[in-house]
Amino acid sequence: MLAAIAPSVPVADISHLVPGFDIDRGARMLEAALPYYPAGSVHMGVVDPGVGTDRRGIALRAARGDHCVGPDNGLLIGAAELLGGVTEVVELQSPAHRLHPTSRTFHGRDIFAPAAAHLAIGLELDRLGRRIDPATLVRLPRTGPEVDVGTIRAAVASINAYGTCQFDVVDADWERAGFAGRSPIVVEVSGGRWTVPHVLTFGETVADEPLLFEDSSGRLSLAVNLGSAALRFGLRVGSWVRFRTGEGGATA
Amino acid sequence: MLAAIAPSVPVADISHLVPGFDIDRGARMLEAALPYYPAGSVHMGVVDPGVGTDRRGIALRAARGDHCVGPDNGLLIGAAELLGGVTEVVELQSPAHRLHPTSRTFHGRDIFAPAAAHLAIGLELDRLGRRIDPATLVRLPRTGPEVDVGTIRAAVASINAYGTCQFDVVDADWERAGFAGRSPIVVEVSGGRWTVPHVLTFGETVADEPLLFEDSSGRLSLAVNLGSAALRFGLRVGSWVRFRTGEGGATA
Amino acid sequence: MLAAIAPSVPVADISHLVPGFDIDRGARMLEAALPYYPAGSVHMGVVDPGVGTDRRGIALRAARGDHCVGPDNGLLIGAAELLGGVTEVVELQSPAHRLHPTSRTFHGRDIFAPAAAHLAIGLELDRLGRRIDPATLVRLPRTGPEVDVGTIRAAVASINAYGTCQFDVVDADWERAGFAGRSPIVVEVSGGRWTVPHVLTFGETVADEPLLFEDSSGRLSLAVNLGSAALRFGLRVGSWVRFRTGEGGATA
Questions:
Q1: How do C151-159 and C165-167 pair as beta strands?
Q2: Which chain A residues contact residue B203 at CB under 8 A?
């Protein structure tokens, strides 16, 4: 549909590897990628278990000048906030800018791609449908970390292809907990406790050694050098982990 | 090879995920995708277990103005029919439009991509080889459904990444069987019998509930909401399923 | 980063499927692909287990006019030699041609892609950092075959998605061993011995039959028609296999 409507617009394909139905995983991928695209880009994301229900299809403009197109299920909004926040949103209703017949199960092809392609060739956002209130957009529930002096509890937010586990824990949380610069951290997972070095880069550890580091999106991550932290510590997305200072952990 | 011969022609990469040797799966992917490309596109498809044998390499023109390039093993012809049917075919024989030395095991690189790239920059089809009779093209055997009043038997035609099972059953078959609009359907698989709702969209069912629906290519599909019908019903490509009206099935 | 810095430069994405940390697999993929790109292309490769250590980031020019960008860990050099050899190399140090802040774990995004994009829009190589001696570049250790009259021992160099096993054995080795044209070869793997036909193409064998052939990069390969040689013979990358002429093997 992009080639048919906007043949001269270059397309960059971020990924087709988001697991089925995993809106949060898709949202995190968009949050990691979209800020690096040039301002004014048109972004389409489709992870859409509610396709064909009354969940809305939307196109939004972000303050930076980008447009985002996809389902109103929380997939787009985190990335839109990183692009400066949502300034306008429309519900995709224009019959002139969708494929006919319109299937009930493949809106990526029939509604979202035509809308994105039309925006990419200069269509005004308001031509795609009626304005809706940005405050009504669906947001994903995200459980932030529990931070106390000397301890942080956080759920695994995502796990990448290497098995590295990312937490929604950023510098400010680390400071609130009063963790000293690069002291080793005790990592507690159900049934286990390990002292893990807190490093800047994998190279400060040896093969098979676990490590805590700030990843390329500024979030705390637990990895194993040349290995998988998910396998080593038995972690899945949503698993709770406790980080604390001080002694008491065996070396993993 | 595309970048070397046709550097200014945009390339859209549909998929590299067709399982090895599965010509029918590749053909169905092309049938689902090619009609949505702009008329006049050049399409290359390679699923080619017979590479290096006397199976022919071909380039064809379809009535819509598109060209399709690949092996003569049935991969292209279904899609070409959706593009209006084959109007001309040549066997790829021109030494001037292939890579030298020409390997015996990688015609995607050495023969098909050069031919497609040359067509994309305007080469006439006849320059690639001698005309052959479209009636001699290899076709895939496909077993259509068995339709009687009140019952349809069909084999699973394909299974997508979600585990949704597609059948070569279209509206006309449904009507011939006399199935009423949206009544539940009894689905019989070896050893089991379930009553499954016949819906327009996933949203009419709840998580883990099976459903029958017309998919985005107009074919009957059996899915499980947020799950896998292939796993739930133990289905593989080629498995036979019987659909009938009336009572008698447990709810899956 | 490519779209942001070099929006009008076409990008071809070879693969994201190199297994994590497998520099040799990545290097072989680049060796198989880069010679077919047009001379003067800019190639970026990132398989980078040493990211954030003192391993250098480099950009090199090859005799053919291409540039290669990535980590100095052996990933690029084999391909560069196929492009005519390395003529100049710089260490990527220019603050003006990287992303700020620069992460310690994602140099693909922060250092390599910006460097490649700047080269693609015409930046001079020397603007990216200081010249270094090509002789100091890291090279991958590769164990060549052991060739005697009548026998060749070689380790599996790579295994593709079909399970076909490739060896670093080329025509010259075959001749040194004095193997006759297309006689069957005895293949010895730990605990087993099979006589395998030596053919030009898969089509000379039947389904499930093993075969030896020269693959599309000119290397000896062991395959199973419509099957997996890795599974059939229990081979992994690095497994040693002995090939010899003469009788004595059961048919696999």
A1: antiparallel
A2: 50-55
Strands A146-148 and A151-159: antiparallel
Q: Which of C7, C49, C103 sits opposite A226 (nearest CB)?
A: C49
Model confidence at C250: pLDDT above 60: no
Instruction: Please choose, from the candidates B105, B103, B97, the residue with its C-alpha nearest in 3D space to the C-alpha of residue B6.
Output: B97
What's the distance, Cα to Cα, between the start and end of chain B in Å?
51
Residue A111 is classified by DSSP as I
Of C102, A48, A173, C47, the C-alpha closest to B225 is A48
Give the DSSP letter of residue A59.
E
Q: Where are the alpha helices (DSSP H) in A16-99?
A: 23-33, 77-82
Asked if residue B138 lies in contact with residue B49, where contact means CB atoms within 8 angstroms, the answer is no
pLDDT of B14 above 50: yes
Do residues B9 and B117 touch, judged by C-beta distance below 8 A? yes
Cα–Cα distance for residue pair A115/A203, rounded to 1 Å: 45
Residue A203 forms contact with C (CB below 8 Å): yes
Where, residue-wise, is CATH 3.40.50.10790 in chain C?
Answer: 2-136
Q: Do C3 and A41 touch (CB under 8 A)?
A: yes
A88 sits in which H/E element: strand A86-91
- Residue B247: what pLDDT? 57
Say if strands C131-132 and C185-189 run parallel, antiparallel, or are unpaired.
unpaired
Chain C contact for A209 (CB, 8 A cutoff): no
Residue A22 CA to residue A74 CA, distance in Å, equals 11
Cα of C43 vs its chain's centroid, Å: 14
The structure's pTM equals 0.90
Letter for the amino acid at A120?
A
> Region B133-150: what's the mean pLDDT?
94
Number of H helices and E strands in chain C, helices first, is 7, 14
Say how many C-beta atoms besides its own lie within 10 A of residue A199's C-beta: 20
DSSP bridge partners of A165: A159, A222
Contact of A219 with A145, CB cutoff 8 Å: no
Q: Any bridge partners for residue B166, and if so which?
A: B158, B221
Q: Where in chain C is the domain with CATH 2.40.30.90?
A: 146-251
Interacting residues of B51 by C-beta distance below 8 A, sequence separation 6+: B71, B104, B105, B106, B107, C201, C202, C203
DSSP A223: E
Q: Which amino acid is at A7?
A: P
Class of B2-136 in CATH:
alpha beta
Q: Which of A160, A216, A226 to mutate to test the interface with C (most CBs of C within 10 A)?
A: A216
Please give the ipTM for the structure prediction: 0.87
Q: CA–CA separation, A108 vs A179, rounded Å?
A: 45
**Interchain contact C12–B (C-beta under 8 A):** yes
- With contacts defined as CB-CB under 8 Å, which chain B residues touch C10? 3, 7-8, 10
Position C249 scores a pLDDT of 47
Q: Which residues contact residue B181 at a Cβ distance below 8 angstroms, ignoring those fewer than 6 apart? A: none
Tokens of A142: 């995200």
- Tell me which fold the domain C146-251 belongs to: Elongation Factor Tu (Ef-tu); domain 3 (2.40.30)
Q: What does DSSP say about strands B151-159 and B146-148: parallel, antiparallel, or unpaired?
A: antiparallel
The bridge status of strand A210-214 relative to strand A42-44 is unpaired
Element (H, E) at C32: helix C23-33
Q: What tokens appear for A40 in the block?
A: 């004014």
Q: How far is C38 from C119, CA to CA, in rounded Å? A: 15
CB A136 within 8 A of CB A60: no
Contacts of C95 by beta carbon, 8 Å cutoff, 6+ apart:
none
Kindly report, residue by residue over C80-125, the tens digit of the pLDDT: 999 999 999 999 999 999 999 999 989 999 999 999 999 999 999 9
Distance from CA of A102 to the nearest CA of C (A): 31
**Residue A13 to residue B10, Cβ atoms within 8 A:** no
